[in-house]
Amino acid sequence: MTKTITVGNFKGGVGKSTYVELLTYILSTKYDKKILVIDSDPQADVTEKLKRTFHKEEMEPETELLQSIKNAVDSNFEKTIEDAIITIHDNVDLLHGSWELEQFDTYVVEELKDKKARYYLFYTLLKDIKEKYDYVIFDTRPSTGITTTNAICCSDYMIITTQTEEASANSTRKIYNYVGSMLQYNENIELIGILPYLIDPNGSTVEQVEAELRAEFEEDVYEHIIRRSKRVIAWGKYGITEHLPYDKKTLHMYENAVKETLERIEKIESEE
After folding, report:
1. Burial classification of residue 22, based on how many CB atoms lie within 10 Å of its CB (0-12 exposed, 13-18 middle, 19 or more buried)
2. Which of 265, 254, 192, 263 minimizes the C-alpha distance to 224?
3. How many CB atoms lie within 10 A of CB 140?
4. Which of 141, 100, 137, 135 is nearest to 14 (CA)?
5. In the prediction, which pLDDT does 12 show?
6. Does the keyword Lipid metabolism apply (predicted)?
7. Residue 42 CB-density burial (10 A; 0-12 exposed, 13-18 middle, 19+ buried)
8. How far apart are CA 245 and CA 120, in angstroms?
9. Measured between alpha carbons, how far apart are the two ends of the chain, in Å?
10. Taking Cα atoms as reference points, which of 158, 153, 212, 160 lies closest to residue 184?
11. Chain center to CA of 92
12. Which of 53, 152, 216, 228 is a Cys-bridge partner for 240, taking CB atoms 3.0 to 4.6 Å apart?
């Protein structure tokens, strides 16, 4: 059964797109899972990162995503958004992000007069597509807009990424409460956990913020945390590699986080 996961925070630069990239890479290449990545962030960072990793930099979709959405809505959903999907690996399809998605919220408000229906557009667009995949993974923009709400309303699970700094911790509290408020629209969504990203592992403030996160959110905080790495910066620029110095050590750090993600999902499902 397909599992749909949204990865997000209201603050940018907290490792969100990087974790989507690594989660996709590890699930597809190490676990042989079929993945659909949906890049709903107009900056399209995860789109560019994954295309570099799988050497598909020149590949573009037949139709830009927002236009494909408009075409589907105009046809009363007889058309799908599959023409906005590109295949970048045997196990990875990508709903290609683009700057045009900046207009998604405005389009939805103007097109859909039923306010509640505005939250379920992605749900409707994906319901006949997603069953082909083991996982559907949303990368979201750092905001509470209609795009992010749509992702949450069609997801089974949520992962919150956060830096160990005070501003990110405050943002994490806000999105944690926001996800709780969204239960009125998607009563089935479950929080997988809060994944901390250490920007300065040796800093005392970092340790204090991490301790505060664990004290406040307890077992919702991942045991396996992500530490800032120069290899990840290089991967973002050139694509993920496994043969260069420190590749294996850095990849192992993310493999532990992915393994914990799967274990947390298994635990949630066993308690249902």
Report:
1. buried
2. 254
3. 27
4. 141
5. 62
6. no
7. middle
8. 45
9. 15
10. 153
11. 14
12. 53
Provide the token pair at 152. 């949450």
Planar angle of CA 105, 71, 77, nearest 5 degrees: 95
- What is the set of domains in the chain, with CATH numbers? 3-264 (3.40.50.300)
What are 113's two structure tokens?
């007069």
For residue 156 the two structure tokens come to 């089974």
249 CB neighbour count, 10 Å cutoff = 10
Kind plus residue range of the DSSP H or E element containing 94: strand 92-95
Mean pLDDT, consecutive 10-residue stretches, the chain (272 aa), reads 89 77 97 97 92 95 95 94 97 94 93 90 94 96 86 95 72 84 92 84 66 86 87 90 90 96 96 76
Residue 221 DSSP one-character state: B
Say how many CA atoms lie within 13 Å of 27 toward its Cβ. 26
Order the strands of the 226-227 sheet from edge to edge: 85-89, 92-95, 35-39, 135-139, 3-8, 157-163, 190-198, 226-227
pLDDT at 78: 93
Q: At what angle do helices 146-153 and 104-111 cross, to 10 degrees?
A: 80
Measured CA to CA, the distance from residue 111 to residue 106 in angstroms comes to 9
